Every structure is written in C-alpha cells, then in structure tokens.
Amino acid sequence: MAKSALLKSSIAKKYWMALTGLFLCLFLVGHLLGNLQLIFSDAKHFNDYALFMTTNPAVKILSYLTYISIIFHAVDGILLTVQNKAARPVGYAKVNASASSSLASRNMAVLGTLILVFIVTHMANFWARMHFDENMPIVVKEINGGMGGKQRVAVGTKESPNPYFQIDENGRFGTKILEDIKTQSMGQYDLAVRDLTTVYNKKDGEVIFIGQKDLYKITIDLFKDKKWGMAATGLYVLAMLVLAFHLLHGFQSAFQSMGVTSRKLTPIIKTFGTAFAILVPALFAAIPVYIHFFLK
Amino acid sequence: MASKKNININLKIWRQKNGNVKGQLVDYKLDNVSTDSSFLEMLDQLNEQLVSQKQEPVAFDHDCREGICGSCSLFINGRAHGPDTGITTCQLHMRMFKDGDTIYVEPWRSRAFPIIKDLVVDRSAFDRIQQAGGFVSVNTSGRTIDANTIPVPKENADKAFEAAACIGCGACVATCKNGSAMLFVGAKVSQYALLPQGKVEATQRVMNMVRQMDEEGFGNCTNTGACEIECPKGISLENIARMNREYLKASLK
Where is the 4Fe-4S ferredoxin-type domain (chain B) (predicted)? Predict the structure, then answer.
C-alpha cells in the first residue's frame, strides 16, 4: 500500500510537486546570487565563479539534483494536467472562474510550459556554449611581449600565478601558435588542444595550460548584440514575469501541499511567498536590463 | 421603488434524457418571476409552465430547501450554487438577477458524478468515499460510553465541528477546475482526525478514503482555492492541508 501511496496517489503527486518546486526555489536563490556578480562584481570574478560552478564536485551533485527536479516537476505537471482534464470530460458552457480563484493558480501548466521553453533556450545560450561550443572564447589579456610589442594571451588557471599562453585573434589556441611554440622549444613538446581550452603535451600527456572560458563575454555580447540584444533582453524580462506569476501561486501552494499550515505560520508563508515571487524574478530581470541599457 | 418586483428572464438549461444520450442547452423564456422567490421556486414556476404546455419538466435535485441537506446542486452562470457565497441553490434568490438576464443552468460536471437526467447527477461516489473510512467504530454492546466523557480541547472541538458542517453537496468538485474532491474528503478526514474518538482508525481512514477518492475518478488538487470560496458551509482549505499531513503520516507508517 505504502509504495503507490507515496508515488501514484493524488496526494503523493502534490508532495513531489511541492518538494521539487521548493528545491527549485532554492536553486533560484543560488543562481541569482551568482548572476548578480554581473552587476556588482567584475569579469574576472564572474569567470572564476563560472569555473568553480563547472568544476566543483559538490556543485555537480547539486546540478544533477536540479535537472532531476526540473524533469520531475514537469512530468508530474503534465500527468496532473492530463488526469485533471479527464476528470471533467464534458465542460461547462459558462464558467466564471475568476470569481473563485486567481489567474496564476488556474494557469500553472501554461506558465510552467513557458518557463520550460525559457529554460531550454537559456541553457542553449549559456550552458551548452560553456560546455560544448568550439568557439567559446577564452579570457584574453594584452601583455607586453619580449620585443616591446603587445601580445594576446589567454588567462589560465594552472601551473603558475601568471599562466599566460598565446592565443590567436579569435581568442583560441590557433594551430599556428602551437606550431610556433613547438619550434621554439626545439621539439620538446608536441602540443595539442583538448576540451577546447586545455593545451597538453601529446608525448607524455602533461597539461601545459588550462585556459579559462569567458562566460562573462558571451553574456554581455548576447544582451548587447546590435541586432538581437534588445529582443534577448525583452524576452528575458518576459520570462521572468511568467516566473513571477508561477511563483506567486507555487510558493505558498507548496507549503499547503506538504500540510505545513497553521494560524501563525500560514500568513507568514503567504507574505514571504509573495515577496519572493516578486523580488527574485525582478532581480533576475534587472541584470540583462542593466547590461543592455547601462553597462558601458 | 428602484428595482422591479417581478422580472422576466431567459434561461439556458441543460436537458439530457439520461446518461446514455447526448444532452444540450435549451432556451426558455420565463416571465413574471418574483425577485423574492428562490432559484428553485423559479424552476418550479418554469416546470409548471412546461407541464401546462405538455412538455417534459426539468429534473433537478432538491429536498430540504433550507440549506442543510446538500441535495440541490446546479452550476448557475458559471458558478456552483450561483452568484453568491456561502449558500446552496435553494438559498439563492432571484433578487440576485436583473430583468432581462440570461441565466445558464448546468449540472455538476465531473467524471465521478454521471448525469442521471437533466440537472440531476449521481453523487454516490461521495457515499463510497465515506464508506471507505468516514466513520468511527463504536462498541454498541449495551455499555456504550457517553462521547462527552472524553475531554476534547475546545479549539479542536470547534474545528472538528466546522469540518463536520460539510453537507456533501459536491460544489467543491463542480467548481474545481480539476474536478477534485479534496475539500470534501479533507473535511471528512479532519472531522475525525481532530477528535480522540477518531485517532483509533486514523491511519487506515485517510489511506482508504484517499484511495477510494482516486478510484472514483476525481481530479488532483492544485490548491487554486476555488472550492473554499464556493463551499456553502465555508469549509476551509486548512482541512485539505490537514488531510495532506494525515496522509503523509499514515503512508510513512
């Protein structure tokens, strides 16, 4: 009995919706704090943070939990919508729904679907580029070269406090540059690039240099793009508006679903939930707006 | 006097011969309806008119006509029990409508409430949920103890009484966009969960009632709160939360 009771029953579906939803609320807070560095910090700190987030094992576990939560939340939502539609095979000719419930509470499935579309777009724009894009730029620094001229170098993260490495005009380790270094070092190295940013010696597998991906640059570029920057900013703000409505119902609803209610607690949860639903999406939305309109 | 004492109205009423055939909304005109009459009295007046025209009268549920039996249903102008709160349809008065209004009258819509005829639906799904656990077992061997000998905290007694005010009319299911019966079941579970007499069977009760509710084909609750607004007895959402707690406790046992 207990097995299906905690998986399939109508109340179990509430629990899962609530628990995954609340976990995703925590994720939002973490994500927001990271994003706010785009306004309150600089490129270096933001990129260091991005590197930490893509390499730290604890973060990896959290990120898998987040993916699972999103999938579970969405699948549960689809199940609910299908079953709830089936619970009323013949509809009413006239429904005055606004007399008894809020707009957000009646449209959680639509809002949720829009958020899912946003998440996929968002991950294609940043997450996929960070992980798979061969043209992902590397953090670049201009230094004075040996002959007094300027040299483009990548900012690395390994081997030395100033692990610079030459890069080409596209911000990548060009084949020509690798050949040059090979020649200069008189055959000591047979250099190659792996994982887009790592230069290693093919002879013994030794890692010579790890370049740092420039997430800051692609973020700024997206929202400052001459052609699409305005559209990207507008759509981002719109998505946050959708998120706000979803949270407006979802946050307090999760506590009701878990049975966490009381005369003292419920008003606090509702007030906090409303503040959360407005503040978190608003701060998220402020970032691309700041980048597009105010960042020099 | 500002408002007219008698009004003329247009009705769009769901007519359906039985559960096996398709139904449809049929238009009726009804003149000289007193604004002091109840909605059910207005339907009586319509039926008299239909009978005198040798037409089949509209079938609708009604019994006590004083808001306590839970028989009368009707989805009126898009709302369960019509455009007022805290009332059943027999307590809805025609003064809520204006001269010339068009009024939609539809049956409760739910897979678990099949239509018997016209506006009459079969609400025995509620009875089966109740039979699954909505009771306490009492020794009736002749040495029955008076219920009042067991002390009950006043607050709990009040809350149990408020939950027990549910008349099982089905407005919660009818108004819920998901066709969920959780307010009804929540009230029935709470009524016993709050009292010492109900503790004995608390675990099986909530499990069995929820299982029966799911089997009957009601939808899932998404906390829109529409049920609470339309409930004629003001049953609070708190009862659903209490059921959620009871269910979690029971399913972890």
Answer: 157-187
